[in-house]
Amino acid sequence: MTLVDFPGHVAATIFTRGCNFRCGFCHNPELVLPEKYIPLLSEKEIIDFLISRFGKLDGICITGGEPTLQKDCDQFVSHMKALGYDVKLDSNGNNPKMLEKIIADGDVDYIAMDIKSSLSKYGLVTGTTNNITMKQLNNNIIKSIDLIMSSGIDYEFRTTVCHPLHEVKDFEAIGEMIRGAKRYYIQNFQHSKHIDGQKQYSPFSDAELKSAEKIMKKYVKEVGLR
Predict the structure, then answer these.
(1) What is the CATH code of the structural domain delimited by 11-225?
(2) Residues 86-106: tens digit of each pLDDT
(3) 150: Cβ–Cβ under 8 A, 6 or more apart, which residues?
(4) Secondary structure of the chain in the HEC alphabet?
(5) What is the pLDDT of residues 180-203, one digit of tens each?
(6) pLDDT digit string (tens) for 140-175?
(7) Nearest in space to 26 (alpha carbons), one of 155, 192, 165, 208
(8) Which residues contact 156 (CB under 8 A, 6 or more apart)?
(9) What is the phi/psi pair of residue 89, to 5°?
């Protein structure tokens, strides 16, 4: 049960495994790295659990890993909605085709998309430099942003920040990417397990967070710190 993953809801979080990004600071290596995968739950186990929680939960948060990599993600969202739950989807925005299908089905109630950095640093931050052309990656991110902002569905964008990958000055470019967005959160890096154990990451200072927040308020209606 979670009270924080789906705004305004008492929710269950369903984690999908596998991701097409390799953000070194990611705190879910068991969901991203194949050699660390944890055992799967069957869909029946998930549905039986959710049926047993009728009246106690009112929302489902589908997160990852990257949920849109699952070939039947759209069907799963619709199945969760058919059970009577509101559905929130977390995504990194790199699969706009699946995102478009899910939005078109009309069964998702809230979308949270990670904005990893400014477009010029996306390959660096996500570790995808050798797996996809930067033009293709940037096009996917911009298309997903546009899909979400024009969908009529409630949404948020958010960025997890850490040194040495992010700088306060990056937020001018991030602001331009999502200009006019409804809601945006800056999430500070927390020391825990992460994918790249060879690098030392550190959080932003309070002053840096406030400076980034001030920049983003020029572009986004509602900005918050987490």
Answers:
(1) 3.20.20.70
(2) 999 999 999 999 999 999 999
(3) none
(4) CECCCCCCCCEEEEECCCCCCCCCCCCCHHHHCHHHCCCCCCHHHHHHHHHHCECCECEEEEECCCHHHCCCHHHHHHHHHHCCCEEEEEECCCCHHHHHHHHHHCCCCEEEEECCCCHHHHHHHHCCCCCCCHHHHHHHHHHHHHHHHCCCCEEEEEEEECECCCCCCHHHHHHHHCCCCCEEEEEECCCCCCCCCCCCCECCCHHHHHHHHHHHCCCCCEEEEC
(5) 999 999 999 998 777 776 788 999
(6) 999 999 999 999 999 999 999 999 999 999 999 999
(7) 192
(8) 7, 110, 111, 112, 113, 182, 183, 184, 185
(9) -120, 130
Which tokens go with 69?
């990599």
The label of the residue with tokens 């990852």 reads 64
Q: Output the six-digit token pair for 170.
A: 């990056």
